[in-house]
Amino acid sequence: MKGKVTLIILVIFLIAFFSVSLSAAEKKITGKDALSMIENYKAKEAELQTKIAEVEEVVKLLQTEVNELQGKVDEIGAELEQCKIKLAENSKYVVVPGDWLSKLAEYDKVYGHGNYRRWPEIYRANKDLIKNPDLILPGWELNIPRP
Asked: If 0-12 CB within 10 Å is exposed, 13-18 middle and 19+ buried, where does residue 52 land?
């Protein structure tokens, strides 16, 4: 970034120099005028160097902020991965003796209290295993569809 800013300032300086040089070629300038122009350019250069320093300071601050935000993004990414793992773990249920689809749909780790009507979702997600929704066997690992 510093190199780009320096390059831009150098290009501006060269354009200004050549435009003055071309206009100087059209008219003769005196030594006094030339010294005055040199002083003006030195003042402009000093002003631009100050602006470069200010911009570099802003760039450093922004880079620090970007690094902090990248750290937060990384933390959130790790948290998201943990949530995906937890969701995958909670998306399975192993049938125990005495279970039936509407009963297990109400389990807290499945859909929660009052959600017995969601048993068809479990049935549809496990049609390859469950041939009769009134008969599920202990030990079956059922997929629990999540919204």
From this structure: middle
